[in-house]
């Protein structure tokens, strides 16, 4: 009887030990899916336009990863700039991450509004997929920037970080707007679409700064301003 109980406990313990492996395999599977997506988008960013909402999750992961890397690089840059009074990592990271994420959100929302009123009226998820699908190259650039800052090559690291930010926040949205408006030839001309996008983003940005508070945004933009 004791032997049966012992065997039963042994089986139960083996079953429990197997359960974590299911989660590990699940993580491995999702990582493999995202890696394939990342490489695919790195080779051909425009592929995102053919997939639409089907790659929403991977696109969102790219946006979050890009935001986290940008925040980390900003911390390294700020830490070097203010070495005598360097900010705490956790507070700086959380605050800058949220601000960067919301600014990217404004970029996407502005694109969504232009698409809804003047373009092919794609869903918000599709616009997120379009934007996130273009971020593989910027993610690589920001990673290189972080590496250069870690080896104290701040001049090159800052230059690459600046290029990544300008491309992702200013050039990339206009590229997406151009694609959206050319999908509906009867809609507004792409040139006016650019103007409308810039106006929409500017208004939303002013509202965002007003809500968040000038002091937080001034500190954030001061860090960005030193890059240029």
Automatic annotation (TrEMBL):
The chain crosses the membrane at residues 56-77, 89-114, 126-151, 158-182, 194-213. Keywords: Membrane, Transmembrane, Transmembrane helix. This is Yip1 domain-containing protein.
